[in-house]
Amino acid sequence: MGKNGMDVVRLRIDVDLKSKIVSQGADLVVDAGRDKIAEYIKDTFIWCAVGSDGTTPSASDTSLLSQLGYRKQPVEAKVENHAAKFTFYFGTGESDGVWREVGLFDSAENGVMLFRTVISDFDKTGKRAVVEITVNVVSG
Questions:
Q1: Rounded to an integer, what distance in angstroms lies between the CA atom of residue 93 and that of residue 74?
Q2: How far is Cα 92 from Cα 99, in angstroms, rounded to an integer?
Q3: End-to-end CA distance of the chain
Q4: Rounded CA gap, 117 and 101, in Å?
Q5: Residue 113: closest CA among 101, 122, 124, 123
Q6: pLDDT at res. 118
């Protein structure tokens, strides 16, 4: 049990964004470039949504398939080790239901979705939840 006798659940989601340069030479996205991409992600994709559909993600997905509640802004966002790291807090009664999908977006409604991932069933009903997302910018 968490503070005030309420459950607080932490979900950790790691996403790797791979950068690949196609050429005939020995090219590499350097660390400073990876950090700049991570900074852009941190400053742009600041809305997290959760949903109840566990269908396998598709490259053509533009939103969650069954969003629960409203998108949330992070309580913390930073760049560390070529990664954008976010912490989102969902209070009791916010986005209640069985979570099966999580996405990161550039706006509170509609907009561009950076990724959609399917997670193991998590029944958030009546609980608080902390969602930690790390978007790794991977070279090579």
A1: 18
A2: 14
A3: 43
A4: 6
A5: 101
A6: 93
Proportion of the chain above pLDDT 70, given as a percent: 81
Place of tokens 């969902």: 90
Distance separating alpha carbons of residues 89 and 79, to the nearest angstrom? 19
Chain centroid offset of residue 2 CA: 23
Burial 46-75 (b: 16+ CB within 10 A, else e): bbbbbbbeeeeeeeeeebbbebbeebbebe
Contacts (Cβ under 8 Å, ≥6 apart) of 11: 99, 102, 119, 122, 129, 130, 131, 132
Q: Note the pLDDT tens digit of each residue in 73-110.
A: 999 999 999 999 999 999 999 999 999 999 999 999 99
| C-alpha of 21 from chain center | 25
Cα distance between residue 104 and residue 50, in whole Å: 9
Q: What is the pTM of this model?
A: 0.85
Q: Which amino acid is it at 55?
A: T
How do residues 129-138 score in pLDDT, each as one tens digit? 999 999 988 8
Cα 13 vs. chain centroid, distance in angstroms? 7
Domain layout of the chain by residue ranges: 3-139
Q: Tokens 């009546």 correspond to what residue?
A: 126
